[in-house]
Design goal:
globular
Length: 345
């Protein structure tokens, strides 16, 4: 019996190594697949919520959920797209001017080398945040290829999510058939726990993002900061990335607020910190009470590792992936093997 446990543990460890190797070798496909599964989890949560108020079959509920989601997305792109482009251009100009001013002030203090002649004093700093459009795009062909690639990936993610939400039990049971009979009960229980935790985490995260975006937008409007809707939107969007996201979101907000004076910038910083603190220490724990909880150090490590291995975009998927991995390790290895009650000798 003890030998069987050793063999099973070794097999699980080898399987984990093989899966990690496959993920690294096919990272782009993995990220797309995982994003599609997350979208499927979101649709599944929507279907379950609609099921409480509409006595319809799963197919009809999924159709209604997809119709609502894509309708809201289309309206947001149609109405907000042009407005956000205009606000982005305004913010870019303000931040560029502010960076030039900061560079000049730093040069006067001897922190940075000063500018001479007609050289742009803030060019280096501006180029760090806002590269030249020609250099960024390269050519119209490159831009078109980039947009096409993003749209293609988005379509694939949507298709994966819809199929996953349409028949989650079918895919779960098909996956379980790859394992021996005596392992399936434990795996089924683990997969169900992962699905429930991931649903609550995703719904809670989206709710927190909305609260953050709305709160910061209202605060920026009241304080007269330019482009409050764009800045609030990016703050809410980056709220999906724990710990690091709010720090990144604060940079354009503070640079924009500094154009109104240091007193206003200080007030914005205080209000921003208060809102993020309330969200992080009060709202998120309440919203995600039934979700899987990750230690902060593990979350930050996952974000850094994902960014190094798969690129900057992948950091948005680091937290849910590590949440799944942690829960799987706890239920498949720690509880049954490490913490298994010892039989009396």
């Amino acid at each position: 019996m003890q030998r069987l446990e050793v063999v099973r543990t070794t097999s699980l460890a080898l399987g984990g190594v093989v899966i990690a190797l496959l993920i690294w070798l096919a990272s782009e496909a993995f990220l797309i697949l995982f994003a599609g599964v997350l979208f499927g989890v979101l649709l599944d949560a929507s279907v379950r919520s609609l099921g409480y108020v509409l006595p319809l079959g799963r197919g009809w509920l999924l159709g209604i959920a997809c119709l609502i989601f894509f309708s809201v997305l289309a309206v947001a792109i149609t109405i907000g797209g042009l407005y956000f482009v205009q606000e982005f251009d305004s913010v870019r100009r303000l931040i560029s001017a502010q960076l030039t001013n900061l560079h000049e002030q730093a040069a006067k203090l001897g922190i940075l080398p000063g500018a001479s002649g007609t050289v742009d004093a803030g060019g280096g700093l501006r180029n760090f945040l806002f590269s030249d459009p020609g250099a960024m795009v390269g050519s119209a062909t490159t831009a078109l290829a980039t947009v096409s690639g993003v749209m293609f990936n988005a379509i694939i993610i949507a298709i994966i999510g819809i199929f996953a939400a349409a028949s989650p039990i079918l895919y779960r049971d098909g996956f379980l058939r790859l394992f021996p009979m005596d392992m399936r009960a434990r795996l089924r229980e683990t997969l169900n726990s992962i699905g429930e935790a991931l649903r609550w985490w995703l719904v809670g995260q989206i709710a927190a993002m909305i609260l953050i975006g709305v709160s910061i937008t209202v605060a920026l409007v009241l304080m007269g900061v330019p482009a409050p809707f764009l800045l609030g939107f990016q703050a809410g969007l980056l709220g999906f990335i724990p710990f690091i996201g709010p720090i990144i979101a604060a940079v354009p907000i503070m640079l924009t607020a500094m154009t109104l004076g240091m007193e206003t910038a200080l007030m914005v910083l205080i209000v921003y910190t208060i809102i993020q603190s309330i969200e992080g220490y009060l709202l998120t724990p309440l919203i995600q009470e039934r979700a899987v909880h990750l230690p902060p150090l593990l979350t930050i490590a996952a974000i850094l590792i994902f960014g190094a291995l798969f690129g900057e975009v992948s950091v948005a998927l680091a937290t849910p992936f590590v949440a799944i991995a942690r829960l799987a390790v706890l239920e498949l290895y720690v509880e049954p093997v490490i913490e298994k009650p010892q039989m009396p000798s």
